[in-house]
Design goal:
The protein has a two-stranded antiparallel ribbon. The radius of gyration is 14 Å and the shape is globular. The chain contains 4 helices and 2 strands; from the N terminus they run ββαααα. Helix content is about 40%, strand content about 20%. Helix 1 runs antiparallel to helix 2. It has about 100 residues and is α+β, with helices and mostly antiparallel strands. The chain starts with 5 loop residues before the first strand and ends in a 15-residue tail after the last helix.
């Protein structure tokens, strides 16, 4: 049901989760209209709404998003912003083949 497009973000600083495991990569799926409406109806400040929406898109716990470094959070915001572009305006992913 969700869009097929996703982006894997490699964290600059691994995140230690509550169970002791380390998260080094996060996969963000492309947002849907429902995600945007859910964010609009959400409670809290704009920053809190954004963090909860990014947590949803990355299948993460809200508290884990809060524990990210600012640089890693910025990577999530940048990936989200790319998804807001029309597909033909998005940066092309370079192939590993060269």
């Amino acid at each position: 049901m969700y869009p097929a497009n996703s982006k894997t973000i490699t964290l600059y600083t691994p995140l230690t989760l509550a169970n002791g495991s380390q998260l080094t990569e996060v996969a963000m799926r492309e947002p849907t209209v429902r995600d945007r409406i859910t964010r609009e109806k959400d409670r809290g400040s704009e920053g809190e709404k954004d963090a909860r929406m990014l947590a949803l898109l990355c299948d993460m716990n809200e508290q884990d998003v809060y524990a990210l470094t600012a640089a890693d959070y910025l990577q999530l915001e940048e990936a989200f912003n790319v998804f807001m572009l029309p597909p033909d305006k998005r940066p092309k992913v370079k192939s590993a083949k060269a």
